[in-house]
Amino acid sequence: MNNRLVSIIALAAIGAMAAPVSAAEPPRAVMVADAASDAANRAVVESLYRAFGAGDGATIAGLLAADLVWIEAESGPYADRNPYNGPGAVFEGLFARIGAEYEGFVVTPVTYLVSGDRVVTMGRYTGANRATGEALDAQFAHVFTVSDGKVTRFQQYTDTAQWMDVTTPD
Fold it and tell me: What is the DSSP letter of 131?
């Protein structure tokens, strides 16, 4: 996935506030963004990434809403359980599998775009697949929906071809 495509995805995600993240999400009213709510929502997502980096499961769990809907990129290795409903499904069905399958897995956000309850991040995933020994270095765009200080929805966009190549033995 090239930088232009990631930027288009990110801009479309924050620009179409009345449009759903996926077909499963019902349409909603356009939110008027203000600087204070933008900053607060960005802070939630930044805290989530810091907790990922520290391996702080308690903080991660505290930042995810009980009714969380988490969607991995279509055709990726972890889309098989989409949507992940609730933090437990994300921890058991996604985070545990990535932890078991990757050595040195790191999620590095580089850019944040915020508008109202939507926070889009662009960055990179890195790590080495334990089974194949192959290195992952894939771009991502993450679209978070934040409400009352909790992530209520997550949609991942990433280079699924690279993920599948890294996880598939030659």
Answer: T
The residue among 47, 43, 66, 76 whose CA lies nearest residue 165 is: 76
Residues in CB range of 161: below 8 A, 6 or more apart: none
Q: Which of 2, 160, 24 is nearest to 83 (CA)?
A: 24
Which 3 state secondary structure label does DSSP give 115?
Answer: strand
pLDDT tens by residue, 72-104: 999 999 999 999 999 999 999 999 999 999 999
Q: Rounded distance, CA 52 to CA 148, Å? A: 20
What is the rounded CA–CA span in Å between residue 98 and residue 107? 12
**Would you state the pLDDT for residue 4?**
45
Predicted TM-score (pTM) of the model is 0.82
